[in-house]
Amino acid sequence: MVTIWLRVSLQMAVTEDEITQSRLGTQTPLDPSPPYNPWAPRLPRSPALKPVSSFNNRDCPEHSRGPDTRLMKFYSGGLTLLPITCSSAKNLDDFKPFPAGSLPRKKKGLAGLRQAPQKTKTGLLISLPLDFRQVSSIIDADILPETHLRVRLHKHGTHKPLGFYIRDGVSVRVTSQGVEKVPGVFISRLVKGGLAESTGLLGVNDEILEVNGIDVAGKSLDQVTDMMVANSHNLIVTVKPANLRNNTIHRASKTSAGNSSAGSGGSALSHDSAPSPASQNACQNSNSNSVAEVESDDDTDLIIENDNMLSYRMTNGNGSHGNTQSSGALRSLPQSFSLPSSSSLSSLTTPTQNGSPTKTSSSQESMREDGNFITL
Amino acid sequence: MMKFRFRRQGNDPHREKIKQDLFAFNKTVEHGFPNQPSALGYDPKLQLMAIGTKSGAIKLYGAPGVEMTGLHKDTSAVTQIHFLHGQGRILCLLDDNTIHLWEIVQRENRSYLVEVNSFTLPGRPGIESSSATRVTVMLLKLSCNLLALGTEGGGVHFLELPSLTLLNRSLFQDQVMQSLPEEYKCGKSLGPVESLQEHPKNSDKILIGYSRGLVVLWDLNSRHVENLFLGKQQLESLVWERSGNRFVSSHSDGGYMVWSVSCSKLCTHEPVSGPVVLFSGGMPRASYGDRHCLSILQDSSHVTLDFTSRVIDFFTIHCAEPEQEFDEASMLVVLLEEELVVVDLQTPGWPTLPAPYLAPLHSSAITCASHISNVPPKLWERVISAGQLQCPLNSYENWPICGGKNLAPESKQKELLLTGHEDGTVRFWDASGVSLKPLYKLSTANIFQTDCDHNDSSTQGAEEEWPPFRKVGCFDPYSDDPRLGIQKISLCKYSGKLLVAGTAGQVIVLVMSDEKSDHMIDVATVDLLQDREGFTWKGHDRLPPKSGSVVFAAGFQPVALVQCLPPAAVTAVTLHAEWNLIAFGTSHGFGLFDYHRRSPVLARCTLHPNDSLAMEGPLSRVKSLKKSLRQSFRRIRKSRVSGKKRAVRRIEPRSADDSLSGVVRCLCFADTFLKDGTHHGPTLWAGTNSGSVYAYALDVPSQEKFSERNVEALLGKEIQLMHRAPVVSIAVLDGRGNPLPEPYEVSRDLAKAPDMQASHSVLIASEEQFKVFALPKVSAKTKFKLTAHEGCRVRKVALSNFTSVSSEEYSENSLVCLTNLGDIHVFSVPSLRPQVRYDCVRKEDISGIASCVFTKTGQGFYLISPSEYERFSLSARVITEPLCRVEVERPHDLSDNSSCSTILPQANGTHKTQVESKPSEAEGLMEELRSALSSPVLGSPNSSADLTLDTTGELTMEDVKDFLTTVDEAENNFRNMAEEDGRPPGILIN
């Protein structure tokens, strides 16, 4: 399990109403040095950093295979940032119960409303893990087909609107009879400043496949609306992203450009994160975010995954020219490969796949064949 | 991580068998008056009447309880219905120019209506256009072997019956033209055939009337014109006298003519003396063109029946003996667009006769309904005797249409359906059997001063008017004052106490009394806004109550009137006759009233501070309507530019300051544990539109001290549902998970006492999910998130008891739910496991869904038209459906060899077709298929019901505010914080 912060857009909320945004390149957002924390003198206490998105990449089979298409999506698009929001909690007594309350979800009912015991680590400018609140995440990346993306939006406790619209549309499915047009539900618009837009995980024209695990096939737009509203406190949508469906040369080149810069950013981050106690804290913190979701919260796990991540980044960055082709080819696969999630589930969840490159490569080849066939 | 549990359940064969014994969906019978009737037919031999509708249904009525329904495959209006007398066969002409033959068939000792044959008149290629072969009239010969069809083109065609084969004997207009004198021809066509009548004495001769006015007596055997009657007025209809010597023609100018057959001349304009002449219409257009009239003339007597809706058709019931000179009609049956009127022609004064069925439910628009099952005989008799005082002719002994035999067993339980109407009346219907009979009508308008009081005198002056009009019928769609409309009804069947609440915030407590009374009504006003400032009511005024005493007939007599302020429509009521308490809610709050001491106990405002819409009454919605109209015009303009119209939905969670969040949706009294687990006592529960639930502990004095001590209410708990969906229903379950019995049931030994030992629980049904909370802690026990799973929203819920078909001993309590998609889900209680799902109402039929009422035994009603209730059954055991037999004699039976396997019990075109077949026929594979189709909830892994409360995925926990138990530190903090946020302490944040 790893939390990746790449091409981070840092949002620092100094007070409740003052929000500033800065874009960081190779620097770590968690670096407490003055240029990146100009508000430090004004802060009576440490600013609370809140990661907005985290990526659960545990046991991700594609990961061992090489370039991850999903990740690349987020490098590539100019707007697809994984932002981190940092906001300060001036003083812990002010502290709203719910943002923190969403974290220790093991506590139920009224217990959740209580303030969690404060770990007082003085001397650090980074605030405490409990100040962090997860806003969105990619989940189940290991069991979903690579054309699909399962995104979790945490409306809980925020005042931000979910901020997206859905519409009816026509989806193309590949069946044994050939290509078939079926009605589908798509994201039609993202509201500026809304939760959906700020996470960058959902995009216009993404097809909605599931809402909180329930297939929306055959359901009307109103039904899907009601399902989403009913789940709005903890909305999990499985989408078929629009930019994973299309594969154009234009996009591929854009991807490579994005990759290299993002890769350097990523490596910088991971280098920095090792020595800096602040970022360590942040890692822990992000880890604790996902603790509620994932049972294992092994620090070593995190480090190992992080190393993998690093090496992957590096190779990608080194062979930027040569790899573009292959990554482009790889990216072409998912577009045409639209298995129902259940059928691909069994093949992808096998743990043996994780470490064996031979197997994955073979599966890649077979996929490629499928892809070629279908793209005709 | 959110766990998607793909748990399969419901595959236990034992449980499946139990479910089959408990649940079965059937649409059983339609109560009320068929919507948009278009044709009428009568069979004097079988004494059956048939009504055809615009939606293509034919409904057969005989003796009360004898009802049959058929639905044409195409929803085309039925324009004519003819019986083949005595044969149990019906010929229907549809608007699409098809003729259909229906037969009454016997199956399993009961009769059904089945379509056996159909026919379309072929056009003559090249000669006649398609409109020329359009059938205008049908003549069925008395011998029932020949059918003559008159067409638009003026031709007459003959069909053999019952095979519906076209005979090569057609008579075309040119043949008739040859025998016409030149001066009559003047080069014009004769126009469509308007009437065909068989000679009453000589069956070989028929009278053919053409639109232009020509009437021809045609001999079928010799195929020649026997006589010509050169009428000059546009013809409407023809009718023979029994002798065959004279016939009468009616004309478009409002006149009628009597012709003598022998001299082929017009003999007289004057009505012949002796017989009764009946005609509809014929009124002077300028003055009475808008009236719907039927005139009865006999000698010097003349009455013009003045109806409130259009006359579709009429027939008389008369002596069938052919020797009589005249028909000697005994009854006149008039089918109007909105009701059926029967006039007794043998009783002087021609009074009307009440019908035992086809009740005009919609005589004033239905605004609400309530069903009471298992009515005690005592109250039943009192209601009936009160009704008989209102309408002395309430026995249906001389009902003339009495064919067939009702085989349905007399229902063991008496059931009442109460309908509230726009004019402030509450009508009591006998819903025990197939025919819904009116029992009693209660009017609440007489306790208020309304404009309509002064209008009575004006109608008196119309005595001298000609023609002598007489108002007939009860269909009256115009309400005198919309504020009188009834919104909610609650009846205590043991004590005979009735609670009725209306549009102007009026809440009336009525008590059944067998004596006439003249008394004052106690009036109290309850301010539901409390001290909330900054609100001004922009809606209607409250209804001014009459001062002084009012005379009330025996029946339900008002004793107390509570008027809510602001006078918004009442949205929820509940009555506890044992505690002498009523509770009522509006869009502003709810109140509790002790009607014994006539004192208000509690008023609670539920308004959200941001809610401005709640202050506008229904009348001032014009503003927002204007705004929305403007917006929609803008949208139209925009969409024209883009050229595409796309449905788009915004995804946002419900926010606290949605408009009308304070509307009180449900109220409930219960004797349960609110303070602690050892002491139970009276409680009041209220749920609002924004997902808030308030629970009050009540201090109700014992029976003897009612007059001395006041009732007190103490706020016990506040629950804010996390998802903020409107609370549709609240019910308290006892220690065994059964719903608590009604008031008096236990103290009068009518029901098993509830389990007060084990812990109680409260079932809260919101628009999105059902949850059972343990009491007194209000901790969630079980839940089912319907909207999250199915994408549908709860519209109506009820707790019903389902008894197994195989054993009367075995029964289960279930939660029945109708959704906005029109389907019905049944859940077990308290485990909230989905049991079955059925399609019931079309999802577009919003008024049908809104009108649905469930009974306590697993049946239900919903409106399929403003005038008709569809009755359906979810129980495999409790089914109220027509079970009747009509004996018929017919020569060639067509139905035996025809493939008429499907019997559609539905007459109205508004139904969803059920995939299901009768449970008796479905076996084995079929049964599996059925369960798979009807309960996708259980089959589909995606809709797994995660019943155990998942601690990790559980984010929709509710906040429970406890006022009675000691509050611990965290909750103190919490409350402080709430106050710091500038919110009133009563409203919770999440």
Automatic annotation (TrEMBL), chain A:
Residues 254-290, 332-352 have a biased composition (Low complexity). Residues 20-67, 252-299, 313-376 are annotated as: Disordered. Residues 366-376 have a biased composition (Basic and acidic residues). InterPro entries: PAR6_homolog (IPR051741), PDZ (IPR001478), PDZ_sf (IPR036034). Residues 150-243 form the PDZ domain. GO terms for cellular component: apical plasma membrane; cell cortex; nucleus. Residues 21-30, 313-329, 353-365 have a biased composition (Polar residues). GO terms for biological process: centrosome cycle; establishment or maintenance of cell polarity; regulation of cellular localization. This is PDZ domain-containing protein. It comes from Danionella cerebrum.
From TrEMBL, chain B:
Coiled coil: none annotated. GO terms for molecular function: GTPase activator activity; myosin II binding. Signal peptide: none annotated. It is found in: Cytoplasm; Endomembrane system. Its main location: cytoplasm. It comes from the Eukaryota. One of its GO terms (biological process) is establishment of spindle orientation. WD repeats lie at residues 416-430. Pfam families: Lgl_C (PF08596), LLGL (PF08366). Keywords: Cytoplasm, Exocytosis, Membrane, Phosphoprotein, Repeat, WD repeat. Residues 273-351 form the Lethal giant larvae homologue domain. GO terms for cellular component: cortical actin cytoskeleton; endomembrane system; plasma membrane. Residues 675-876 form the Lethal giant larvae (Lgl)-like C-terminal domain. InterPro entries: Lethal2_giant (IPR000664), Lgl_C_dom (IPR013905), LLGL2 (IPR013577), WD40/YVTN_repeat-like_dom_sf (IPR015943), WD40_repeat_dom_sf (IPR036322), WD40_rpt (IPR001680). Belongs to the WD repeat L(2)GL family. This is Lethal giant larvae homologue 2 domain-containing protein. It comes from Danionella cerebrum. The lineage of its organism: Eukaryota, Metazoa, Chordata, Craniata, Vertebrata.
